[in-house]
Amino acid sequence: MSETRRVNAEIRQQEGHIVGFALRWGAYISVAVVAAGQVLAFFHPAFEVVAKAGVLLLIFTPVVRIVVACAVFASERDRRYTLVSLGVLFIVVMTSVAALLGWMSPPER
Amino acid sequence: MSPHVIVELLGLGLCAGTIGALGGIGGGIIITPVLAIYFGVPMHQAIATSLVAVVATSTATSSVYVERGLSDMRLGMTLELATTTGAAIAAFIAGYVNRHTLALLFSLFLIYTALALVRRAWVSRQEKHTPEIPPYEVHRYPLGMLASLVAGGMSGLLGIGGGPIKVPVMYLFMKVPLRVATATSNFMIGVTAATSAFVYFGRGDIPVATASVVVVGVFAGSLLGARLSPRVRPTYILGLLVCVTGYLAVQMLFRLASGRF
Question: Shortest CB distance from B199 goes to which of A20, A26, A95?
Fold first, then answer.
C-alpha cells in the first residue's frame, strides 16, 4: 500500500505550529510541576505527591498531543488520519485507565 | 537522597539528554543501564525512570522538528497504532519477567544499537544536506507496522525509545528521507514511552524522587542538545554514542556474569 503525499510542506508546517505549541507547553508545565514538587518534598516529604502528579502530567502530555493532532486532521476534513489518531488515542487511553486502575499489575509483588 | 546523589542524577540526566538530542535518540538507552549499574536502582525501576525521561526528551525536542514540518505526523501516527500496542503489551509482560532476563535483553539491545549507530554514521556521511525535503512516497506499510510493533515492545520492556529500530526501517525500507525518518521517530517515541510509562506507574514501579531529578536533568539536557545541534558534526556524536553504548553493554554483561545484579 503506497500513498501519494497530497500534503505539502507548507501545510505540514502550519499543523506543526499548533501541535508543536501543545507539546512544548505540556513539557514546560509538567517539568516545572515535577521540579517544584521535588524541591518542596525536600522540606516536607508529604509534598512528594506533587512531584508524582507532575510525573503523571508529563506522561499525559503525549496524549494531549494526540488529541491536538486529531483535531487538526479533523479540521482539515482528513477522515483517514482523524480515524488513525482516534485509534491511537483509544489504545493509549485504554492502557492508561487499565494501568491506573491496577488491572495491569501482577497479583503479588 | 543525599545532595551529591542528586547532583550525580542531574548530571546523568543532563548528559543523556544532551547526547540523546544531538544523536537523535531518546537517551533512555543510557539512563537505564547507568541507573541499574551505578546507582543500584532495581532494573524495573530503572526502566520506569528511563521511560519517563524519554517522554520528557521526546516531547521537548519533537516540538522543534514538528514546527519545522520535518516530522511526518501522518506516518508517525499510523505507525503509532503499532508501537503503542507493542509498548502496552511489553510493559505488562515486564511485570512478570525477572530482572536478570531484562538486563540480558538490554545488553543485547545495546550491542544492536551500537551497530545500528555505526551504520547510521556511515550513511549520514553520504547524505547531502539540502534545505528542502524532496517529495516522497511511503512504501511497505505492513513491514513498517511490524517493525513498529517490535520497536514498541522493546520500548516497553527495556525503557528505551526504539529509534534505532524505527529509523532504519523508515529510511531503508519505507523510502522516507533520513531527516524525516529521524524527526518522525523522535515524534513517535514520546507516545510510545508514555504508554509503557502508564503501566509502570500503575504498578508503582516509578521511583518518584529519582525520576524527578533525572527528568529535570534530561529536560535541560535535551534543550541544550537541540540548541547545539547545528554546530556539532553528526559523526562525532555517533562515534561517542557507539563508545558509550558499547561500554555499557560490556559492563552490564560483566555484572550479569559475575552475579552482581
Answer: A95
pLDDT in tens, A26-67: 999 999 999 998 888 888 888 888 888 999 999 999 999 999
Residue segments in chain B with a per-residue pLDDT below the cut of 50 = none
- A30-49 residues touching B, CB cutoff 8 A: 30-31, 34-35, 37-38, 41, 48
In contact, B43 and B250? CB cutoff 8 Å: no
Helix-strand-coil split of chain A, %, nearest 5: 80, 0, 20
What cell was used for B22? 544531538
Distance CA B177, CA B171 (A): 6
Residue A11 has pLDDT above 80, yes or no: no
Cross-strand bridge partners of residue B138: A3
Q: Yes or no: say if B78 and A73 are a contact pair by the CB < 8 Å rule.
A: no
Please state whether B71 falls in left (phi above 0), alpha (psi between -120 and 50) or beta.
Answer: beta
- Compute how many other C-beta atoms are within 10 angstroms of the C-beta atom of residue B197: 36
Dihedral (CA of B59, A42, B8, B259) sign: negative
pLDDT tens column, A57-97? 999 999 999 999 999 999 988 899 999 999 999 999 999 99
Q: What angle do the packed helices A79-100 and B178-202 form, to 10 degrees?
A: 30
This prediction's pTM:
0.89
Which residue type occupies A2?
S
Are B55 and A13 within 8 A, CB to CB? no
